[in-house]
Design a protein that fits this description.
Order of helices and strands: EEEEHHEEEEEHEEEHH
Domain Nudix hydrolase: 100-236
Keywords: Hydrolase, Metal-binding, Zinc, Zinc-finger
Structural class: alpha+beta
CATH class of the largest domain: Alpha Beta
Oligomer: single chain
GO biological process, one term: AMP biosynthetic process
CATH superfamily of the largest domain: Nucleoside Triphosphate Pyrophosphohydrolase
Shape: globular
Number of strands: 12
Largest sheet: 8 strands, mixed
Protein name: Nudix hydrolase domain-containing protein
Strand content: 25-35%
Organism: Araneus ventricosus
C-alpha cells in the first residue's frame, strides 16, 4: 500500500558549505542559502546568481523558462543546462499509483593522473549470477540526506573515506513492474574527486568482486546501464570545462 512517508522529495538535496569553505561560498538570489560556486548558474540574460535547486524547481514544468528572481526569459542554451541536471521518466504518473517508492544515492568517483581523468568502475555479481559494472550506490536510510547516503555507500562498498565533493550531477527517476505492481525508484548522483586513492576494499558480501579505473572512452564501453553512461557523458562535459 502507498505510504505517504515514501513519497519523493520535491527538491534536490545539496551539500551545504562548512566553516572551512564558507569564504568561497555564494548566496542564492532566490532561496538565500549558502552553496559552493559549482552549485550555481549565472543567468545569461539578467546576471542573477541562482542555485541549481531553485533554477530547476522554478522551470521544471514551464514551456517558457524564466529567471526565478526577475522573470527574464532564459535562452535555449541556458534551459538545456538546467534540464541536464535531471532525468525523469513517467512524470505523468501520480505517486499514489506506486506500490512503493525507493530512494537511492550514489557516487561517481574520478581521479586525474597526468592530465587524464579516470572513472572508478566496480564489478558486481547479482543475485541471479549476472555480472555488471556499476558505481557505488544504495538506498537512503533513516534521516540521511542523499549526500550522506552517497558518502556512506562509497565507504561501505569500496572502503573509500577520503574524497572531495565536486558537484551534484543528476536525479534519475524510473518506474518498473514486479509481480504486477508498479514501483518507482529515484537515484541521486554526486561527483567526487579521489585525490590520493588508497587500496580499495570491496564489499564481497554485496557481490563486489573487482574494480578498475577507466578513461572516459573505456567507461562508455564498460558500464552496464545506458542511463548511467548518459550521466558519465554529462560528467565529462562538466570536468572538461572546469
Amino acid at each position: 500500500m502507498y505510504n505517504e512517508k515514501d513519497s519523493m522529495p520535491t527538491t534536490f538535496d545539496h551539500p551545504m558549505t562548512t566553516a572551512d569553505n564558507l569564504t568561497s561560498a555564494k548566496n542564492c538570489s532566490m532561496c538565500c542559502k549558502h552553496f559552493q560556486p559549482s552549485f550555481f548558474m549565472d543567468v545569461d540574460e539578467c546576471g542573477h546568481i541562482v542555485c541549481k535547486v531553485c533554477m530547476y524547481d522554478w522551470n521544471n514544468k514551464t514551456e517558457n523558462p524564466t529567471c526565478p528572481v526577475c522573470k527574464s526569459s532564459i535562452s535555449e542554451r541556458q534551459l538545456h543546462k538546467i534540464r541536464s541536471c535531471i532525468q525523469h521518466t513517467d512524470d505523468h504518473i501520480d505517486d499514489a499509483c506506486y506500490e512503493k517508492i525507493y530512494q537511492s544515492s550514489g557516487g561517481i568517483l574520478v581521479r586525474r593522473v597526468n592530465g587524464t581523468l579516470y572513472y572508478l568502475a566496480i564489478q558486481q555479481r547479482r543475485y541471479n549470477g549476472d555480472l555488471q559494472w556499476v558505481s557505488p550506490k544504495g538506498q537512503i536510510e533513516g534521516n540521511e540526506s542523499s549526500l550522506e547516503a552517497a558518502q556512506r555507500e562509497i565507504s561501505e562498498e569500496v572502503g573509500l573515506k577520503s574524497m572531495t565533493l565536486i558537484d551534484f550531477i543528476s536525479k534519475q527517476c524510473f518506474s518498473f513492474r514486479e509481480s504486477g505492481k508498479l514501483y518507482k525508484k529515484t537515484i541521486f548522483w554526486y561527483l567526487f574527486d579521489v585525490d590520493q586513492p588508497s587500496e580499495l576494499v570491496l564489499n564481497e558480501e554485496e557481490g563486489f568482486i573487482m574494480s578498475k579505473w577507466l578513461t572516459y572512452k573505456e567507461s562508455i564501453g564498460t558500464f552496464s546501464h545506458q542511463s548511467f553512461i548518459e550521466i558519465i557523458k554529462v560528467v565529462d562535459s562538466i570536468v572538461n570545462k572546469s
